[in-house]
Design brief:
- The structure is a single chain.
- The protein has helices spanning 9-27, 73-78, 83-87, 106-118, 161-172; strands at residues 3-4, 7-8, 35-45, 51-58, 64-71, 97-104, 135-143, 146-152.
- It has a 6-stranded antiparallel sheet. A two-stranded antiparallel ribbon has the order 1-2.
- The longest helix has 19 residues, at 9-27.
- The protein contains 5 helices and 8 strands; from the N terminus they run ββαβββααβαββα.
- It has a single domain, classed as Mago nashi protein (2-Layer Sandwich).
- By secondary structure, the chain is α+β, with helices and mostly antiparallel strands.
Length: 176
């Protein structure tokens, strides 16, 4: 049996299942009763906590809410430190994901959406790039029947720099 990162094949499979479950949970669209999701920003570093920020606006437009979720990678990595440590935890692990909601001024979200409408980007990335490690970014902007979604690696493709800056603004609304 080969090993990767000091893990035998069975631990590697367990880790892959846990990682996939964590990222799937972070990528799953969030919902808040009485609110409409307008912006989602997901940041997935290779070796740090992946996190998600959703911005919601009340259906009547009177208030807004930010929801921040993060996969606590270090907590879950510790469960795989060695085979004996792994046995101390349930066979089917659930990822350690923490989330919190914070009120946001509706005007702040409106201003962000106005800024998003002014961003002009090529509809497709112009070049094919390979990325082994780094960060995966995903940004969704909802506008009723219309929506936009963008995904890029550590560095945005040429012409997408404004999207990268916009995603950073969204993430900065609620501290980690």
């Amino acid at each position: 049996m080969g090993s990767w990162g000091g893990m035998d094949a069975e631990l590697q499979e367990d880790w892959a299942r846990l990682r996939d479950a964590a990222l799937a949970e972070l990528r799953r669209p969030a919902a808040v009763r009485g609110f409409v999701r307008r912006v989602t920003a997901v940041v997935e570093p290779a070796f740090a906590d992946a996190h998600r920020t959703d911005l919601f606006v009340a259906r009547d437009g009177s208030s807004a809410l930010a929801r921040r979720g993060a996969w606590r990678l270090g907590v879950d990595v510790a469960k795989f430190r060695n085979p004996a440590e792994r046995l101390r935890h349930p066979r089917a692990l659930r990822p350690t994901i923490e989330s919190a909601d914070a009120p946001v001024a509706a005007a702040v979200v409106r201003e962000l959406l106005d800024a998003a409408r002014r961003i002009r980007v090529p509809s497709a990335a112009a070049e094919t790039r390979i990325q082994l490690d780094g960060i995966r970014h995903h940004l969704e902007i909802e506008g009723g029947l219309e929506s936009s979604a963008f995904t890029w690696g550590s560095h945005p493709p040429p012409g997408w720099e404004d999207l990268d800056a916009f995603l950073a603004r969204v993430v900065d609304i609620v501290p980690l």
